[in-house]
UniProtKB/TrEMBL annotation:
GO terms for biological process: adaptive immune response; positive regulation of adaptive immune response; positive regulation of cell-cell adhesion mediated by integrin; positive regulation of cell-matrix adhesion; positive regulation of heterotypic cell-cell adhesion; positive regulation of integrin activation; positive regulation of leukocyte cell-cell adhesion; positive regulation of transcription by RNA polymerase II. This is Src kinase-associated phosphoprotein 1. Residues 18-121 form the PH domain. Its main location: membrane. Signal peptide: none annotated. One of its GO terms (cellular component) is T cell receptor complex. It is found in: Cell membrane; Cytoplasm; Nucleus. Residues 127-196 are annotated as: Disordered. PROSITE patterns: PH_DOMAIN (PS50003), SH3 (PS50002). PANTHER family: SRC KINASE-ASSOCIATED PHOSPHOPROTEIN 1, SRC-ASSOCIATED ADAPTOR PROTEIN. Keywords: Adaptive immunity, Cell membrane, Cytoplasm, Immunity, Membrane, Nucleus, Phosphoprotein, SH3 domain.
Length: 264
């Protein structure tokens, strides 16, 4: 059983964290009697590490949980012969048990498959944007600590850092973030302030919905564009970001570079 799964077993369905997708599916039973139902309705949850299913959305313990890593998801129209055959998909892993599900409609089944495949691709990715630059920055920080944050308490390893107001963030990062040009234009020749070419590297896009659980966190949805003000909490897995004039900390694992930049 992988790390974090033991905690997931003890958590009721409404209290799960890092949920990427959830909803009711019909799961095909391996052992159903003559009078038993072959397909049983289950509340299914996909997190960043595991797949769980419960008897219903209010259940206190899952009926089963397994690490999603090394599994693959694919549509499986052959599982049924009725009108819902195009709503079927299955999870496969060499040497392990396979799971077969029926969604409410074909689009929902495809969305489950897409979400799982996207997560697996992200888990197996060997390339992390700007990873080399981040390592160099961390080494420089170890050799020579910043002198421009005197009086600022370092974050506690047991809790995440406090959020900054817009004025504080601007004052702290004025030497780290290049000012945006006033004469920026988009491809149509219209004025477009706030997107200077040298600042494109600081724009990231949400890969999944993120709902804040603390006042200092910044909520966003999949596809939202977030401007990163600081990566000084990178070692804790958090960055300081801004969206719609709101500033807060965001989990870096939920973000991906918004623009592809050519390295010179």
């Amino acid at each position: 059983m992988g790390p974090g799964l033991e905690d997931a077993i003890q958590k009721p369905a409404p209290e799960l964290e890092n949920v990427l997708k959830q909803g009711y599916l019909e799961k095909r039973s391996r052992d159903h009697g003559f009078f038993g139902s072959e397909w049983q309705k289950r509340w299914c949850v996909l997190t960043r590490r595991a797949f769980l299913y419960y008897a219903n959305e209010k259940s206190k313990q899952p009926k089963d949980v397994f690490p999603i890593e090394h599994y693959s998801a694919q549509l499986a129209f052959h599982l049924r012969k009725d009108s819902r055959r195009e709503s079927c998909f299955k999870l496969l892993c060499p040497g392990k048990r396979s799971y077969e599900f029926t969604a409410s409609n074909p689009d929902e089944a495809k969305d489950w498959v897409d979400q799982i495949q996207f997560l697996l691709k992200d888990m197996n990715s060997l390339t992390i944007p700007y990873d080399e630059e981040e390592e160099e920055e961390e080494e420089e920080e170890e050799e020579e600590p910043y002198d421009d944050i005197d009086g600022f308490d370092p974050p506690n390893s047991e809790s995440h850092p406090k959020s900054l107001s817009l004025d504080e963030a601007a004052a702290r990062d004025e030497d780290l973030v290049s000012p945006l040009p006033d004469d920026g234009e988009d491809s149509g020749g219209q004025r477009k302030p706030g997107l200077g070419e040298r600042d494109y590297a600081n724009y990231y896009q949400g890969m999944w919905d993120c709902v804040s659980t603390h006042p200092d966190e910044l909520s966003f949805q999949r596809g939202d564009i977030i401007y990163i003000l600081s990566k000084e909490y990178n070692m804790y897995g958090w960055w300081v970001g801004e969206r719609n004039s709101e500033v807060g900390i965001v989990p870096k694992e939920y973000l991906t570079a918004a623009y592809e930049l050519e390295r010179v």
